[in-house]
């Protein structure tokens, strides 16, 4: 499990797309799992979780398009 002390979507997207599956924890945002190179919405998700997943998955798509 990788822990991020700051929420930087580009850095997190690079990590998720490289490892392809696993878990991460972001201070102030909570724990997340990722599979097939995409961040997954956690169980009992709140609005901030959906927003975080959406932002990071958009960055992953941007990285794959380049």
Automatic annotation (TrEMBL):
Name of the protein described by the UniProt record: DUF1107 domain-containing protein
Which InterPro entries does the UniProt record give? DUF1107
């Amino acid at each position: 499990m990788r822990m991020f002390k700051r929420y930087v979507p580009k850095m997190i997207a690079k990590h998720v797309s490289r490892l392809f599956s696993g878990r991460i924890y972001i201070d102030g945002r909570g724990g997340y799992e990722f599979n097939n190179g995409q961040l997954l919405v956690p169980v009992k998700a709140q609005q901030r979780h959906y927003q975080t997943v959406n932002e990071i998955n958009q960055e992953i798509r941007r990285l794959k398009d380049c």
